[in-house]
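Exercise 7. Predict the structure of adenine phosphoribosyltransferase from Hippocampus comes.
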Amino acid sequence: MTVVQLVQKIIEPYPESAALKTHIYAPESPLMCLCLDARGFLFGPLLAQRLGVGFVMVRKKGKLPGATVSVAYNLEYGKAEAEIQVDAVTPGQKVVLLDDLLATGGTLFAACELMKKQHAEIQGCMVVIELTELKGSDRLKPYSVFSLVQY
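Solution. The predicted structure, encoded as tokens:
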């Protein structure tokens, strides 16, 4: 399956982007697609383009130019830091987080923590693959998690 086919599969229940926008967030407020380093960048921009909204990259520390805000988090095998540019998301802005894989939820949880720091409104998380046995979606509560494929 190509990336374009994957994005089409994610949004196929919504024939018009306006219907998808209504499903994800209140139409009076802008939405940003927040995509996680690096495979989230494969389909995040396509979804953002389809929705007619902005695209923000969450990167590993030290990869973004300019002023950034970061959060440290634990991985199964160590520690890491994720960051966004400080002016990428404004307070009160509605965001949806996108990634390729949800395993233990550490990276998506860190992205949620970044959004809390920015006082953004998290509308939910979307992933291509969810490894359900690892219960990563439990770590992301109270946010909703949409996964295309579950194993």
